[in-house]
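hey so i finally got around to running the thing on that chain from the lab meeting. sorry it took forever, my laptop kept dying and i had to restart like 3 times. anyway pasting the input first so we r on the same page abt which one it is
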Amino acid sequence: MTGADEGASRPADGIPDPEADAVDRADYDPGYDASAPVYCEVCGGEMYYTASCKLKCARCGYTRDCSDP
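ok and heres what got predicted. didnt touch it at all, straight out
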């Protein structure tokens, strides 16, 4: 292995293990809980996923997605 592959963990089959490099990611947060509720920025109601990255508020109907800041 050379260049960008140095230090990265790769099994013999060549498929990378995403969990092996998780702590090296800049956005790694050990306190992140994927099952925690997401609350609406407008009314404070609980939001739910309508698609892969689209959230909708059950109370007021506000929507946001992964392209929103």
